[in-house]
Amino acid sequence: MTEVLVGTRKGLFVLRGEPGGELEIAVRRFAGEPVEFATRDPRTGRYLAAVTSAFYGPKLFVAEDPGGEWEQAQGLELPEESDTALTRLWTVVPGEEERLLYAGGDPAVLFESRDGGLTWRLNRGFWEQPGRDRWQPGGGGLCLHSIATWPGDPARLALGTSAVGVWLTEDGGETWRHGNAGLVARYLPEESREGTLDLCVHNLRRAPRRPERLFMQFHGGVYRSDDAGESWTPIGDGLPSDFGFPLAIDPDDPESAYVIPLTADTDRVAPEGRVRVYETRDAGATWAERSEGLPQEDAYLTVLRQAFAGRGSGPGMELYFGATSGEVFGSADAGRTWFRARTHLPPVHSVHVAA
Amino acid sequence: MAVLRLRAPLSELAGGRELRLPGETVVEVLGALERERPALRGWILDERGRIREHINVFVNREHGREETAVGDGDLVHVLPSISGG
Predict the structure, then answer these.
(1) Is the distance from CB of A109 to CB of A78 less than 8 angstroms?
(2) How many other C-beta atoms lie within 10 A of the C-beta of residue A276?
(3) Which helix (H) or strand (E) holds A141?
(4) In Å, how far are A158, A269, B36, B79 from B68, measured between CA atoms?
(5) Which residue of A lies nearest to B53 if distances are taken between CA atoms?
(6) Is this prediction's ipTM beyond 0.90?
(7) Closest chain A residue to B81 measured between Cα atoms?
(8) CA–CA separation, B35 vs B42, rounded Å?
């Protein structure tokens, strides 16, 4: 049985069932509240949900059973003396040490937990970056949305932010530096692009089997890095649009990436009303359209950055993505064919395949 | 002591809809609430000690802010603003 966690504008939906047909709503929690992201730590089985109440601020909740009691995590806050408050939590990612987790949020902040997610502390090295007061938000805020760990090495991380580019550490987060060479901010005047930090990363994923390789969906551009994020090469040729938000990979194939193109720049819906996933198995040299079973007429869907996820690897890898139209689509054959996993949900913010 | 009134979900976290709390300003009353009911920390006041943007506080029917004075027996009502979608 597959379990998919769907964070929506109106709560968390836990979908369960056999891939290939509609999944049932097994649990709904946080009714009425925006759930920006939900995940399950595969090491502990623990569920974590980032809830951003319009009234009561961002909170992270933790549960052993999504249908049972959820406990509020502690410590996800900025220093009292800061001139802003934590606005939103965008992601939670298991780290490379037992019970280590990372969380990213707005305004471009990184938190760490050493107890599996119950208590957190701010990463001071990133918080105290010189020049932070000049960092500019993207349309979704000043968000730290992607945290790419390095398998087996807790000292190395890559962060994707909007809109302050890629950040790298090799000392467990004590010190940070940019990893932006090769990124082109086409949304800026040509004369302003050189050396800018206004770099709107939409998604960043590392290939676990070849960790020096990363893939990125940028705000106009799909990129690959083969040097652990130091420099980036555009690989968007062959896509109907190189704009989009989410990105998925086959974790066992470092040549693989999946993107869901959207019409640039302000429209941000499926190009020509056709919902298409594109897959590469040669690290971006070529892309293959994967649309069998997806709406191909008058379907102006938007898929947000955290709303595309997979489980497993190889030809039987499962993939799921959700749209702001409230539909969730799934594939049980690595994207070759798709089915409707659920319809009529609230606008989907995030998708995670928990089991 | 002020009389603080809460609605769900705050009342559920506080364990009741009405509490008597010390404080001479709204923010002092809300600070006392957080000390007495730690589960509410961060829900009404953010980490800077400011009332969250979409929370309304009324003191004896008048809209209040952090420094609004609160006297003995005054009614402090906390509720979400009419916003969202």
Answers:
(1) yes
(2) 20
(3) none
(4) 46, 47, 21, 16
(5) A55
(6) no
(7) A55
(8) 11
A-B Cβ pairs (cutoff 8 Å, strict): 44
- Under the banding of pLDDT at 50, 70 and 90, the label for residue A265 is confident
CB contact under 8 A, B52 and A55: yes
Residues B83, A77: C-beta atoms closer than 8 Å: no
Spatial contact of A337 and A177, defined as CB atoms under 8 Å apart: no
A124, exposed or middle or buried, with CB in 10 Å at 0-12, 13-18, 19+? exposed
Q: Nearest C-alpha of chain A: how many angstroms from B85?
A: 9
Identify the residue among A56, A87, A89 best suited for mutation to test binding to B, counting B beta carbons within 10 A and taking the highest: A56
> Nearest-CA distance from A184 to chain B in Å?
36
3-state secondary structure of A333: coil
d(CA B85, CA B70): 33
Q: Look at B47 and A55 and tell me if their CB atoms are within 8 Å.
A: no
Nearest Cβ partner of A57 from B46, B49, B84? B46
Distances (CA, A) of A110 to A86, A107, A124, A173, B37: 11, 9, 8, 9, 28
The residue of chain A with its CA nearest to that of B83 is A54
Assess contact for A247 and A309: CB atoms under 8 A. no
Query: What amino acid is encoded at A153 in this protein?
Result: D
Q: How far apart are CA A299 and CA A36, in angstroms?
A: 24
Q: Do B54 and A85 touch (CB under 8 A)?
A: no
Q: Give the per-residue pLDDT at B85.
A: 61
**How many other β-carbons are positioned within 10 Å of the β-carbon of residue A98?**
10
Sheet bearing A71-72, strands edge to edge = A35-40, A47-53, A57-63, A71-72
In this prediction the pTM is 0.95
In the block, tokens 């951003």 appear at A52
| Helix (H) / strand (E) containing A128 | none
What CA–CA distances, in Å, run from B67 to A57, A85, A171, B26?
21, 19, 44, 6
Contact flag A85-B55 (C-beta cutoff 8 Å) = no
Q: To the nearest whole percent, how much of chain B has pLDDT over 70?
A: 96
